[in-house]
Amino acid sequence: MEGRHGQQLALARLEGIGKDNLPFDPFLEEEEQLLEEEEHHDDEYDDEYDEDDDFDDEEEDDDDDDDDETDENNDSIYNRDGSLRRKKSTLATLRAGYPAGGLFAVLEIVGSQHKVTTDDLLVVHRLQPVDQYKIGSVHTFGGEGDNSKNILLVGSTHLTIAGMPYVPGAEVDVMVEEITQDAKVIIFKKRRRKHSQRKNGFRRDLTLLRILDIRLPEQYKDHKYVGRDSVDEIDHNELEDADNSPDTTVISPSSENTVKFDNNEKEDVGQSKLAKQ
Amino acid sequence: MATRGVFQCQKLTLRYCEYGGSSRAVRDYLKSGRLIDWATSRPSVEIKVKVQNGKHPIVTGDYVTQAVSNKSIGGNMTGKQSKPVIHQICLKSKGGHGHGHGGNSSDNNHDNLITVGNFDKKVNKTNGANPIEDAFNLLYNKSGRKMKKFTKPIYTDTPSIQGVWTPSLDLHLIPQEDIDQKYFKLTIN
């Protein structure tokens, strides 16, 4: 990443170093030694008790616990709350402002506008009718019909389409996750020394939406941009050099080929062109 | 509740009394058989009906997230024990209301049912016709998570796609020829 702007973004990348490792624990070595001693102790007992029913039962119990844990850890790409499972280092870089890639859109729903990417959780006033927006149902905003006037802006890493006022052809897929109420807010007003007070409770009706997919209009089918998955390929274990930054993989929405940019090509906006002059 | 398509509500337990007046609405509901229709339209939930005499009627919800977190209550390293989150709605009805009580008796169930807890008729579109089903829907639509205030309208892992703006980004210094900027009219049908 070249130029001053690129260097600032590279600093965001440095935020993630070391977050994957466990924090320093001075007693870790002692604990490991104790565990080793226990294992040796158990080995001695194994020689004495070769065939034991109790021993077999304990093994079965341990296996059951392991299965529950490993199923959750290995199989699902998602955390329990529905967000993508990412390494802690990647999360730290993204939070610091590193470009994540992919597409984003500005959606207008129920009177409020939000900037949205894939895998977001949107908290919105309750969508009516509730029978139509059931939990688990998938809806498309920006297509044709009732939901056509929803998308105000769509963008990728290398393109932004600002609608006037809407972007026709752009689409956003959304899944209804939960229909609840917000936590209770207590509104208490008191005028002191006037024997006047009032207390009201309020719970806002909500729909939680998960953004599944964003699509550019058809004219931009072949547009090439930096894909979302390029962030997960960053290796935070090594110290950073300018050369060590990942090759930006570019994914076109319609084609199946991935094209790689060289690091030497102009990625940074503006600065490299000024340098030429 | 459906996180990523996985329905979070696993089980609804309906507990009622055979004799008490507060359970009258629930008994009528069970007799009418509407519970079966409700259950068949939502195959991901297991419904258990239990008789508990001498108590008010109650619906309790069991969720995926709750099941896992309750497992680990005993084995916390910090020694803190988090309270299990319970999702319950009480379905009391006023047994004392008879017919001919005032001019409001339009619908039997409508007048007699009073509910305690976070229960509002406007929540679901049965229009108050069947508050018991409303209670079921309320619990079915929830996830098992603790009720915390939603501080932000969006929860993301990726706040920036093009990279966060920095003061050293000098977009105004790019010559106009290098920017590919177009205006054109896209028609909306």
Automatic annotation (TrEMBL), chain A:
Gene Ontology molecular function, alphabetical: rRNA binding; structural constituent of ribosome
Question: What Pfam families is this protein classified in?
Answer: Ribosomal_L21p
Answer whether the UniProt record assigns the keyword rRNA-binding to this protein.
yes
Q: Where is this region: Disordered?
A: 15-81, 229-277
Biased region (Acidic residues) positions are 27-74
**HAMAP family, per the entry:** Ribosomal_bL21
Protein name (record): Large ribosomal subunit protein bL21m
UniProtKB/TrEMBL annotation, chain B:
Question: Could you tell me the Gene Ontology terms of the biological process aspect for this record?
Answer: mitochondrial translation
Q: Which GO terms describe its molecular function?
A: structural constituent of ribosome
GO cellular component, alphabetical, reads: mitochondrial large ribosomal subunit
| Name assigned to this protein | Ribosomal protein/NADH dehydrogenase domain-containing protein
Naturally occurring in which organism (per UniProt):
Fragilariopsis cylindrus CCMP1102
